Amino acid sequence: MSAIMMDGKALAASVKRDVKEKVLTLTRQPTLAVILVGDNPASSIYVRYKASDCAECGIRCLDYRLRADTSETEVLALVGELNRRDDVDGILIQLPLPPQIREQVVQEAINPGKDVDAFHPENVGRIMQFAPRFLPCTPAGVMALLRRYGIDPAGRECVVVGRSNIVGKPMALLLLQAHGTVTVCHTRTPDLASVCRRADILISAAGLPGLIRSDMVRRGAAVVDVAINRGVDGKLCGDVDAAVADKASYLTPVPGGVGPMTRAMLLVNTLRAAQMQQLLTR
To answer: Which residues are designated catalytic?
Structure first.
């Protein structure tokens, strides 16, 4: 048995084509404002990719590059200005932020209607109530991949490894909304392997290379590797050991699996924000 690789690049390309078509129906070009504080190399690469994705879909991207020593007050002032601008539909703060800037304070300052990352407490609450305005990009990308490959969480045992606000917690909520029976594992979960072996759908977002071994996976399970790490050889890898491919029915590659879908879902959220904004200003 060899797992079917879930092609996130191909699905993301399809999502982007759909976004591009819908952008053409709007009365004005959607605009995404991206704020990057500091010169973190990985963050700079992500922002460049996001700008390229926006251009591909006809979305204007405003790129704000701020010094690493920028104060929290300055960032909040910029967020306030972008909140007030009718021509800005989405606002994204690239994480991580320098230590002098409190992540939660900045995220709470974004207008919830422009919070295309879905990190604002109001948007998190709406997800909890199964009435989302926006869906967090990575979990939404995972759900889109599951749908594309006909993997229905309803009535299935779903295990999420990782409890971050960005992936683990919202991922569990989206699986629960899809009628999965969900277990969330973390650093204090005893006997992680036995919990993982129960999973029909196993999603790992722990950020630990090789964490998920073949002996931790039920034969025929669908395995989604959200993590992006650097292995000892310097190459990109996820949490899931390569040997899992011989046991799982479906598996996401790293790179080329969840990553492209995360970026595609940002475009979907930006389009939705623009649609809502244009309804308000009619």
So the answer is: 50, 94, 117
